[in-house]
Amino acid sequence: MRRQDIQLLASARQGDLEARYEIGRRYLLGVEGFSLHTDTGLEYLTHTSLGPSERAARTIADALPLHELVRRNLLPALVKTARAGSTAAQLKLGAWRALTSADPAEPMRWLDAAAAAGDAGACAAVHALRSRPSNAAAAVLGALKAAPGIDLARLVPQALDAAIRSSDPMEIARVLSGTLTANSPVTPELADAVCMALARLENDTEPRLSCENGAIESLLEDCIRRGNTTAELLLGRALSGVGTRALPASLLTTGQNLRRGAALLLRAADAGLTAAWMVLYRIHADNRSSVSNPQMARFFLEKAALAGELCAQRRLGALILRSATTVHESEQGIHWLHQAARRQDALAAQLLGLLVLPVAGSDAEADAAIDAVRREDPWLACRLRTARDFGLTKLEAMSVDIVAGLRPWGLVVGPNPSIAQAKLAAPRAIPALRPQALENLRRSVWFFEQSRQDGSPIEGDRRKRTHRLRYCLERSGIDESLFFAKVRSTVLNSLRQGPKWAFHAQQPLRMALAA
User: Fold this and answer.
1) Which end of the chain is flanked by fewer CB atoms within 10 Å, N or C?
2) What is the pLDDT of residue 24?
3) Cα 109 to Cα 126: distance, rounded to the nearest angstrom
């Protein structure tokens, strides 16, 4: 390095603003004895002491291409230079605003200024923007493909990334539409950005994306070749003919290919994208599909339910319950419906409600009566509480083993050995319709377990409990209809047999399976 350059560096380090600017300029441009070193040049030129300097901002804006200005968060320097009248800066800022601003007047203002100064690229961009004001991005990008300082292959992915960071679906859709209709150069960065933007839009309630059908397929294929699992889900779903409101299948691909779509969905699901399981279920459950397979469909539905898909949990529970012939199958169905109902699924909650028999009176009356009984017989009070919460018949309430019947989702009334008819003595699975019912049941279980461990007096057999019940209710003047459901044996039998229950719950079942 020359002696005068060393002296200039020393002056810059001592705070000389002119020397600081000069060192920054030479490093940024790689001139006059200084090798090109962008980072060092920007370190000098963006120093706080040079903040008010219009000359420093102009040097930065003129020296760096637009994508570098965006990547390094140097747009304020670009705006300052454009306002000062720099044609190159006005052209760059107009291009960026065309990509990122919803108002076409914003890019037009800067491009008009550059065109007035005689810039040929700006003139072409202004003409294109006036002819296509509804799609500013496509119009300007098409006119500025060869403009100096504007590298569309790098710039467009940056605009998409900025839109994605905004989390505004309208902004993402607008930038993505402009990108796709402008036929921007296809690069891995652009393909990844488009894929990410599509993933953000897929659950949008209003479709706002506009482009030629199939324009996105090649970009997704490029992502898939590089192992992008999100692209596998998006394209696999489209090839299977399954779309969303914002992303209809025809938008992503020009035609269906169920076998390739299923293969892509399997890869996506295996990589952890659980939404793919539900799509696989739908295409394999459709008996008109070329990949129809009921056994595989059930497997995919179970995988989706295990992965936490709400719709899958509700549908699996309804399907199992509809065909259940044993209490074990009923328990499985109730388990999945309970999982969905806990997540505020109204259809699942409605189906569970059809498994619980109604009891008379208000909860306030029942609570007061249970408190009165608890003072004389706490074991009986626990049984009455359980009967009220789960809609048990009197016989079920007096014979149920509360400890053995506890389940995470409710109660199983075990087989009753004192009833000769097998159908009437069969076990029954009953869900808890409210969290409080489940909490009350756990408290009762804890009380019975503690009583056994402490050696407290036991309840006695069912006959003794029934006599005790009659005595307590008559003494307190309590109506037993507050606690026990009164139904015919045929109704109880229908609750134990899935097909019979399904016959009486046709409409709710149809809604639960269709949603």
Assistant:
1) N
2) 84
3) 9
Which residue type, as a one-letter code, is found at position 492?
L
> Residue type for 384, please?
L
Instruction: Please name the CATH architecture into which domain 153-307 falls.
Output: Alpha Horseshoe (1.25)
* Residue ranges covered by each domain of the chain: 153-307, 311-356+503-514, 363-486
**Count of Cβ atoms closer than 10 Å to residue 90 Cβ:** 27
pLDDT at 231: 95
Between CA 93 and CA 81 the distance in angstroms is: 10
> CA 510 from chain center: how many Å?
25
* For helices 169-181 and 136-143, angle between their N-to-C axes, nearest 10 degrees: 40
Q: Which residues pair with 431 in a beta bridge?
A: 410
User: How many residues would you count in the chain?
Assistant: 515
Kindly report, residue by residue over 171-209, the tens digit of the pLDDT. 888 888 877 777 677 889 989 999 999 988 887 766 566
CB 74 within 8 A of CB 24: no
Question: Tell me, what amino acid is at 459?
Answer: E
Q: What pLDDT is attached to residue 472? A: 87
- 162 class by beta-carbon count within 10 Å (0-12 exposed, 13-18 middle, 19+ buried): middle
Angle, CA 43 vertex, CA 39 and CA 48 arms, to 5°: 155
Q: 104: buried, middle or exposed (CB in 10 Å: 19+, 13-18, 0-12)?
A: buried
Sheet with strand 406-407: strands edge to edge = 406-407, 410-413, 428-431
- Cα–Cα nearest to 62, from 32, 92, 38, 83: 92
What DSSP string runs through 105-142?
HHHHHHHHHHHHTT-HHHHHHHHHHHH-GGGHHHHHHH
Q: What pLDDT is recorded for position 441?
A: 96
Neighbouring residues of 187: CB distance < 8 A, sequence distance ≥ 6? 153, 154, 157
Q: Mark out the alpha helices in 406-497 (DSSP H runs).
A: 422-425, 435-454, 462-476, 489-496
Judged by DSSP in three states, 376 sits in coil
Which of 201, 197, 168 lies closest to 101, judged by CA? 168
DSSP string, 248-306: -HHHH-SS--HHHHHHHHHHHHHTT-THHHHHHHHHHH-TTSTT--HHHHHHHHHHHHH
Residues 218 and 291: their CA atoms lie apart, in Å, by 25
Among 272, 270, 291, CA closest to 281: 291
Cα separation, 40 vs 34, whole angstroms: 11
Predicted pLDDT of residue 357: 94
